[in-house]
Write a structure and sequence with these properties.
By secondary structure, the chain is mainly β. It folds into four domains: 56 residues, Nucleic acid-binding proteins (OB fold (Dihydrolipoamide Acetyltransferase, E2P)); 61 residues, Beta Barrel (OB fold (Dihydrolipoamide Acetyltransferase, E2P)), CATH 2.40.50; 57 residues, Nucleic acid-binding proteins (OB fold (Dihydrolipoamide Acetyltransferase, E2P), Beta Barrel); 67 residues, Orthogonal Bundle (Arc Repressor Mutant, subunit A). 14% of the residues lie in helices and 38% in strands. It is built from three helices and 18 strands. A five-stranded mixed β-barrel has the order 1-2-3-5-4. Helix 1 crosses helix 3. The chain is elongated.
């Protein structure tokens, strides 16, 4: 097992000293220093421990804290300081991540948060960050099928909708007419492929397509009815904005979902009200 910089590693305690512990891989190779303040009280030699490995002053160092993001990840990170070489962002482990000036898109400002990709600088072998996302996200996708479930990270807003990173690798777009709940930069969601275009661009939708999505929404509406003493003052004639605010969905999807509940005999329908059948 090779020790991976910028990742969580399962390492073996080789030696415990006054200043901390020295860790190796399971073959006894490498040396990673775990500071005394990060050591569990019951740590013992030959014990396997899960740690995050980073570089500090030219040495491999470990912490038992779990970082907000690891090598290869995209994450929304806050700027804690700025100096002559770049900005430093909080990783949640007490060790900041450098984002060099030439990797900032736009130029970072103190205390603001930015979507950052964690990469290994080839020259220094140091874990760094970049908000120049086009260097790491591919424009043209292949191998996706319509309705395929994917993971997305919200990367930015445009006139058309929201740019998203699909499966940590490709650009995609959630168009405005598919957005029925608040989205924010850095948000991670489950989503579905609406279309893979001929030019390789991915159209993404947030709701599950077809009957499956309708059934899922039906369950949400039914649960809401039970919480509201069996009555919700929304129906198939209600204002679309009110429906979107209540359930984060389009009026068309809402009508399909309550129609499903009505066919199952679970609710009674009125123009602007649905009632739970008891």
């Amino acid at each position: 097992m090779t020790i991976q910089l910028g990742k969580m590693n399962s390492l073996v305690v080789n030696e415990i000293a006054y200043e901390g512990a020295y860790l190796t891989d399971d073959s006894g190779n490498g040396e990673v220093f775990l500071k005394k303040e990060d050591m569990p009280n019951d740590l013992a030699v030959k014990q396997v421990i899960e740690v995050f490995v980073f570089e500090e002053q030219g040495n491999l160092t470990a912490t038992t804290k779990t970082p907000i993001a690891q090598l290869g990840d995209f994450a929304l990170l806050q700027v804690t300081s700025i100096n002559a070489i770049g900005a430093f962002v909080d990783m949640g482990i007490g060790k900041e991540l450098l984002v060099p000036y030439n990797e900032q898109r736009p130029k970072f400002e103190l205390s603001r948060s930015y979507l950052v990709h964690l990469y290994l600088d080839k020259a220094s072998q140091r874990l760094c960050g970049s908000s120049n996302l086009n260097k790491f996200v591919k424009q043209e996708a292949t191998g996706f099928k319509k309705s395929q479930e994917v993971s997305i990270i919200v990367a930015g807003r445009t006139d058309l909708g929201f740019k998203v990173i699909v499966n940590n690798e490709y650009w995609g777009m959630v168009f405005t007419d598919q957005v029925f709940k608040p989205l924010f930069i850095g948000q991670k969601l489950k989503a579905y492929v609406a279309k893979l275009r001929e030019d390789g661009k991915l159209d993404i939708r947030l709701s599950k397509p077809g009957v499956a999505g309708s059934n899922e929404l039906s369950d949400v509406i039914y649960d809401k009815l039970t919480q509201e003493n069996g009555v919700i003052h929304l129906g198939d004639k209600s204002d679309p904005i009110a429906i979107k605010k209540a359930f984060g969905c389009s009026k068309a999807n809402f009508k399909r979902a309550i129609g499903h509940l009505f066919k199952e005999g679970k609710i009674d329908l009125a123009a602007t009200k649905i009632t739970l059948v008891k």
